[in-house]
């Protein structure tokens, strides 16, 4: 009997398995429709950067997607980094391939002549804006170049041997010299992995808490440690950029991860890793010390020494001196923070942090500047004396406070400049616009008693960027300019200190971002005229919609409808989302984005599906609301389902959806959301989950905003693992994952085991593992393949009027 049942059932299983069979094989890359290929291959618009002198715009020209062959270059995965040993820098394809300069007054654009096949990175303006330094990648080496802005000419300063494992260059305050990291000239040949290991790799626990996140690309053995040290060891040098080029070495080689000249130019603050390294944490948690040298490399003072940081509480900070930086408004003064609560956010404390300062010659006792009720997150200095805005943040309430602090006289009572919920976008006062001070440092500009703030201007109708004038004395705010009309325009920077002239980036749904110059009493000048790279999408409609879920939480999404859509048509619908946690309904329901932004379609954007006849609800909000951040995830799945049902219902109410042909999709935490919704509801016919994590027991020391460990809340970890509910996923799910994903928690194994779980429980699924791709996908072949897979999957399972799975008669709702 059993044998006959198996024979009868085999035909059904075999029919559904035909499409799944290639999962176990190597398939050639596939292509989407030609119209999509043309869009993917269109060169993107240049990046722009305004000079410190405010008279020149730098255009950084980019190329379309690199081939997978560039991603396939040999890679060393060490200490949480991905390195190219041939280049002695970070692994990855180039993006910027050319430079040009636009004079704001005349509008003239001048191309900077560079060698063919050059890749450009680490681009940096000199303090006065007369030069631009950058690293060039060419012929398997990294070299240092500088552009003379006045003549738009580039020349090579160092013809190879730049060490770009960490920051490769920085300007000295005089604007005539660069502090550069070079490869250690005495390091010898690259270490070779021994054929026979010297012994086993061992680790040991010593009875103290060490809650380590699930990091990837860590050191695996002593060979990895030796190779990392070989690559990371650098020789600091000062390089003249004017006159005859001269390179002068500074001190001895070391494992330097940072080197920053003092604002006055007489000292260098250096961060150095110390051995032995750890196999359990990335490089930034290795033992280290921070010290100061003079320009000859002679050590002046050790400022801090930190042991291995593997016992930092979840959401906490190290004890002792941390975040050590130069005070931007002083020639040679260091500032740092120290925890007053042992660095543990679980400890109840009236004051969590203190900020300190110590000036050259770095002897004697430091000066305590202020204490904060919550965690200190740095200071943004101003052009007024030694005044700076210091920020603290409460992780429980998500409240931020900014205080105006006098670092010259700590006895002066700090003044509160801002206090709000960090997620309250409607109350966001924006960011202060900066200027260069006498030391060439970027600081908040204050002119005639006023500073200027620019922001997104979030409103219930969408973003409306603004420019405000704010009294430095009273913080009273006056609006100078605000975006209006059926376009989106945001401030780039001021071109006059009193904001009588400023640059904006302007766009509308069919026009890509271009730079405009606003000048008081004059017509607005168009500085750039970048063409639409994909005009064939101009007929796609876009609308910001709002709706509400059953429990009263307001939701929003951007609705895209294909060209030719007519009222009365019903379309298959793709819902693209990403869950976020909130303390209250008022912030959870706030609208973000603008219906007037340019309809960018690039990479693996879900907007490509609109070209294939789908309606798209992009960034459909999926808020998880709870007043207790420790337990907010206890209702995660229930709230996800409520949001999904509301998204389905609004498609029917607006008339473009039939309530049946819906798909859910997302990336990373959005993939996690997708798997949950397919398991816990029948709202969607199918799903696409990209680069997700599905088994939370593999991330036992927290994930996303979850603060509890697995051992503190095992039921939550079980319930919030889609892997545990794989037997309930009865809709088709396409899973895509980069084979070299380095994002914390989203190991490629997560998708492999999730696929096996769905398959083992007779579910319908397909798994696509992309060679050489990480958490986000970059190779041209990969991008096109993901789009082809996604279109084919939705065309098969969602687009047909009749449900191919035969589930059209089932009642939708949560389980």
Describe this protein's structure:
- Residues 647-799 form the Peptidase S9 prolyl oligopeptidase catalytic domain.
- It comes from Maricaulis maris (strain MCS10) (Caulobacter maris).
- There is one protein chain.
- The protein has 815 residues and is mainly beta.
- Among the domains are: 29-36 and 534-797, 3-Layer(aba) Sandwich (Rossmann fold); 315-433, no CATH class; 448-531.
- The protein has ten helices and 46 strands.
- The strands form eleven sheets. An eight-stranded mixed β-sheet has the order 39-40-42-41-43-44-45-46, with helices on both faces. Strands 28, 31, 32, 33 and 34 form a five-stranded antiparallel β-sheet that branches.
- α6 (636-653) packs across α7.
- Mean pLDDT is 93; it is low at 1-23 and 808-815.
Quick overview:
With 815 residues, this protein is mainly beta. Among the domains are: 29-36 and 534-797, Alpha/Beta hydrolase fold, catalytic domain (Rossmann fold, 3-Layer(aba) Sandwich); 315-433, no CATH class; 448-531. The radius of gyration is 28 Å and the shape is globular.
């Amino acid at each position: 009997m059993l044998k006959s049942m198996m024979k009868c059932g085999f035909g059904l299983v075999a029919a559904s398995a035909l499409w799944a069979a290639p999962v176990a094989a190597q398939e050639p890359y596939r292509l989407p429709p030609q119209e999509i290929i043309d869009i993917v291959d269109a060169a993107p618009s240049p990046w722009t950067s305004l000079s410190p002198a405010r008279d020149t715009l730098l255009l950084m020209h980019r190329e379309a997607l690199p081939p997978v062959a560039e991603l396939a270059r040999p890679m060393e995965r060490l200490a949480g980094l991905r390195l190219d040993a041939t280049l002695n820098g970070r692994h990855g394809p180039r993006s910027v391939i050319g430079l040009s300069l636009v004079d704001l007054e005349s509008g003239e654009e001048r191309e900077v002549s560079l060698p063919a096949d050059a890749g450009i990175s680490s681009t940096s303006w000199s303090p006065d804006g007369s030069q631009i330094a950058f690293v060039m990648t060419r012929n398997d080496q990294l070299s240092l170049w500088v552009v003379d802005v006045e003549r738009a000419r580039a020349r090579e300063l160092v013809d190879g041997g730049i060490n770009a494992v960490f920051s490769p260059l920085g300007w000295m305050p005089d604007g005539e010299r660069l502090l550069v990291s070079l490869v250690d000239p005495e390091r010898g040949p690259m270490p070779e992995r021994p054929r026979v290991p010297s012994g086993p790799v061992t680790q040991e626990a010593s009875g103290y808490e060490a809650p380590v996140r699930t990091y990837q690309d860590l050191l695996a053995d002593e060979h990895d440690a030796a190779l990392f040290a070989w690559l990371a060891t650098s020789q600091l040098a000062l390089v003249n950029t004017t006159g005859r080029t001269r390179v002068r070495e500074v001190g001895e080689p070391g494992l330097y991860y940072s080197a920053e000249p003092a604002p006055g130019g007489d000292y260098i603050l250096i961060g150095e890793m110390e051995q032995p390294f750890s196999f359990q944490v990335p490089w930034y948690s290795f033992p280290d010390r921070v010290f100061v040298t003079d320009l000859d490399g002679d050590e002046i003072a050790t400022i801090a020494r930190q042991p291995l940081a593997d016992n930092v509480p979840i959401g906490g900070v190290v004890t002792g001196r941390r975040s050590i930086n130069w005070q931007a408004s002083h020639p040679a003064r260091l500032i740092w923070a120290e925890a007053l609560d042992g660095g543990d956010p679980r400890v109840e404390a009236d004051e969590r942090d203190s900020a300190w300062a110590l000036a050259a010659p770095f002897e004697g006792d430091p000066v305590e500047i202020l204490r904060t009720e919550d965690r200190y997150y740095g200071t943004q200095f101003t052009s007024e004396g030694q005044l700076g805005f210091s920020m603290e943040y409460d992780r429980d309430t998500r409240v931020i406070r900014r205080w105006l602090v006098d670092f010259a006289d700590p006895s002066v009572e700090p003044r509160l400049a801002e206090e709000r919920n960090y997620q309250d976008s409607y109350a966001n006062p924006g960011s202060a616009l900066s200027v260069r001070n006498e030391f060439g440092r970027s600081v908040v500009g204050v002119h005639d008693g006023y500073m200027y703030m620019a922001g997104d201007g979030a409103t219930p109708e969408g973003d409306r960027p603004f420019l405000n004038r704010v009294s430095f004395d009273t913080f009273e705010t006056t609006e100078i300019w605000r975006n209006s009309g059926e376009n989106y325009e945001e401030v780039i920077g001021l071109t006059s200190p009193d904001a009588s002239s400023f640059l904006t980036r302007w766009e509308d749904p069919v026009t890509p971002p271009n730079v405009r110059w606003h000048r008081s009493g004059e017509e607005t000048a168009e500085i750039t005229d970048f063409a639409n790279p994909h005009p064939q999408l101009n007929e796609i409609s876009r609308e910001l919609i709002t709706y509400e879920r059953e429990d009263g939480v307001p939701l929003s999404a951007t609705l895209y409808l294909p060209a030719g859509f007519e009222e009365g048509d019903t379309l298959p619908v793709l819902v693209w989302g990403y869950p976020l946690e909130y303390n209250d309904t008022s912030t959870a329901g706030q609208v973000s984005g603008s219906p007037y932004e340019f309809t960018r379609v690039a990479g693996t954007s879900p907007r490509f599906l609109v070209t294939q006849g789908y309606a798209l609800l992009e960034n459909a909000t999926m808020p998880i609301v709870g007043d207790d951040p420790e337990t907010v995830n206890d209702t995660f799945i229930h709230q996800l389902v409520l949001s999904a049902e509301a998204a389905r219902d609004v498609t029917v109410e607006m008339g473009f959806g039939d309530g049946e042909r819906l798909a859910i999709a997302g990336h990373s935490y959005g993939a996690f959301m997708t798997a949950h919704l397919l398991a816990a509801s029948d709202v969607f016919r199918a799903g696409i989950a990209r680069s997700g994590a599905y088994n939370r027991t593999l991330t036992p020391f927290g994930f996303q905003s979850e603060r509890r460990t697995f051992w503190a809340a095992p039921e939550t970890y079980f319930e919030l693992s889609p892997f545990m509910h794989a037997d309930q996923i009865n809709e088709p799910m396409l899973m895509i994952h980069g084979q070299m994903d380095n994002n914390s928690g989203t190991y490629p194994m997560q998708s492999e085991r999730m696929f096996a779980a769905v398959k083992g429980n007779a579910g319908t699924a397909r798994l696509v593992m992309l060679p050489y791709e990480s958490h986000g996908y970059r190779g041209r072949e990969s991008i096109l393949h993901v789009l082809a897979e996604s279109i084919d999957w939705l065309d098969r399972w969602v687009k047909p009027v009749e449900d191919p799975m035969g589930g059209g008669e089932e009642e939708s709702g949560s389980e």
